[in-house]
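Hello Y.,

Per our agreement to keep a running log of every chain we model this quarter, I'm adding this entry. I've kept the format consistent with earlier entries: sequence first, then predicted structure.
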Amino acid sequence: MQPGSITIGQNIKTIALVNRTLPENKKANVIEAVLTAEGLLQDKEGTQRALSGLNDMLMESPRFHVKNTNVELQGSGSGNLFPAQLDWGVVSQVCKENNTDGVAALETYDSDCIITNWAKDVEKTVDGKKIKSIEYYYKELVIIKLGFRLYDPNSKTVVDQYPYSFQMDWQTSGSTPEAAIKSMISKRDAMAKASYAAGSDYGRRISPSWVSVGRAYYRKPKGTQFAIGVRKARVNDWKGAAEIWERCINGASEKEAGRAAYNLALALEVNGDLNGAKKWAMKSYSDYGNKKAVQY
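Predicted structure for the entry above:
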């Protein structure tokens, strides 16, 4: 569990999500969409996906209850500048109708898609022979610019105002330009995925969230009790692995004892014993000289 980037007061336990990106001048927005070759529904779909990403992120968190409303309000219609703050009467009404303590409003949104391509000489092996050919590459970069405000109607304060930019890219290749293009993700799907991820990113700013953490452990020496502990870890029997690695420490060489203590620390962490994990990681370095245990 990773804490959010900012701390939100405990008085806000439930949040209503609203879309405040409706353009003030819809006609001008349509003209701009045509002139820039953007799909007329692209930004609308993008804002919905961003709010869905935020909604799903907050639903997984123990900190907030969330309601993704269908409320759409007029705002800036762009991803550059925030409009004036929402009227507190409107914020209070949204909270009252949805039984929430605060409002998170998506207030700015803009998207852009940049496609680049290049080619380079490559060497391939065909039927045991090395041949030279040309490989064609295409890269699709999606840039989402958006901004959220988090309103607290009780104290009439904007708890957070956060404009940011989020990027995702996809790359394909092929023996011909047509083959590379054919395997490329569609622009619409790319925009949807990037917008969803951008909304999730804001959720991690304001709320604790679960993250996956990678860990490495020693697999050697093989052919010993140590290896049995490795096999138990691979089948998720971390308790059994910990018992074996602890026994491996006694009578082992300094190097092997350091590795066993390191692995034991990892097994204890997986099982939720953080104090025990810290103890054995410290011993792995201080008693047996395992330098990797310092970082761990």
